[in-house]
TrEMBL record:
InterPro entries (alphabetical): ABC_Transporter_SBP (IPR050902), ABC_transptr_periplasmic_BD (IPR002491)
CDD domains in alphabetical order: TroA_a
Stated family: Belongs to the bacterial solute-binding protein 8 family.
Species lineage: Bacteria, Bacillati, Actinomycetota, Actinomycetes, Actinopolysporales
The protein, known as: Iron complex transport system substrate-binding protein
């Protein structure tokens, strides 16, 4: 999975040409400008609630660094690529870039390396980092919003990953799709693209509502999300975007009662649940086809009816973590579940 880490220090063309005192929403992206005196626009400071903490931004960020594909695609969907110094992305997510509706923007925006850290962020000249807990931020890696603040760099934390009060490691303070809408609106406010943000939220809600209407009154197939793992599978509990995506599509995550996002379980629990469908997360060092072959070759898992009947649906990682592909993931899963027989 590892490749040579490259840091590109060259900013995107046009980043430094800040000529007017207004925010303009252009076809290629959102152009944030300062006044002729170099002062921030009159609407600043901007105060946002992020992970149950009020954050104050004194000026519009101009060199944002992102980590992970879904987070980066949020910026792209809002047309904010011109505000980015670059992004960090592991090789395990490169297939997701190729399938991304914003693949051209990925190509035009500097890929800063596979693993985010202080050295790379400083080299990029970042004034804000958009990442999440276990989506770049982590105490063990000594890369946290607190450390960035000490270095004079702002941060915004992905709302899906927010830690619950009094629980250091447990994540999820709101339903995952609400987290997506919250982040889109917060960033729309910060960068002055509120109309675009509201339009995206409206589009996503409409897509999801149509998918729910499609499966209204039908059966509720059970779904096992298989991310990775051989001795023990990695899946998603109710704190991850995948759980709500499955629910909105008319299915039921077999680990819906697990108060966590991405976590490890046992094969025994999967076998007891006997899911109707296996959802494959196309991510990491093994291809989706290799993951399916592994399940078909597993002595116990291969006996599951969903495996024997080949009820596999594959979606990219970017569809199953918080990001702008969530709504289309709901639609795709709903279509697949619609064809699952009620009884065999």
């Amino acid at each position: 999975m590892r490749s040579t880490v490259r840091i590109r220090r060259k900013a995107l063309a046009g980043v430094s040409l800040l000529m007017s005192g207004v925010l303009l929403l252009g076809g290629c992206g959102a152009r944030v400008a300062t006044t002729s005196s170099g002062e921030p626009p009159e609407r600043f400071p901007v105060r946002l609630d992020n992970c149950e903490r009020q954050r104050t931004f004194d000026r519009p960020p101009r060199r944002v660094v992102t980590n992970d594909i879904g987070i980066t695609e949020i910026m792209f969907a809002l047309g904010l690529e011109d505000r980015m110094a670059g992004y960090f992305l592991s090789d395990g997510q490169r297939n997701g870039v190729r399938s991304s509706p914003w693949s051209a923007k990925f190509e035009r925006t500097p890929h800063l390396g596979e693993e985010i850290g202080m050295e790379g962020v400083r080299a990029a000249g970042a004034d804000m980092v958009f990442a999440g807990w276990n989506y770049g931020f982590g105490e063990t890696e000594r890369f946290t919003p607190g450390r960035l603040e000490k270095a004079g760099i702002d941060s915004y934390v992905l709302s899906e990953s927010c830690r619950r009060s009094g629980a250091r490691d447990a994540r999820g303070i709101m339903p995952p799709l609400r987290a997506l809408y919250t982040d889109i609106r917060n960033l729309g406010e910060l960068f002055g693209v509120r109309q675009r943000a509201e339009r995206l939220v409206s589009e996503y809600r409409s897509t999801i509502a149509q998918a729910r209407e499609r499966n209204a009154g039908g059966d509720t197939p059970s779904v096992f999300l298989y991310d990775s793992g051989r001795s023990e599978p990695v899946t998603s509990g109710n704190g991850g975007a995948a759980d709500q995506i499955i629910h909105k599509a008319g299915g039921e995550n077999i680990f819906r009662d697990l108060d966590d996002s991405w976590t490890t379980v046992s094969w025994e629990t999967v076998l007891r649940a006997d899911p109707d469908v296996v959802l494959i997360n196309d991510y990491g060092g093994r291809s989706a086809a290799e993951k399916i072959d592994f399940l078909r070759g597993h002595p116990a898992v291969s006996e599951l009816e969903a495996v024997r009947r080949g009820r596999f649906l594959t979606l990219p990682y970017a569809s199953l973590v918080e990001g702008p592909r969530n709504a289309s993931a709901v639609r795709e899963i709903a279509r697949f579940l619609d064809d699952v027989p009620a009884d065999d």
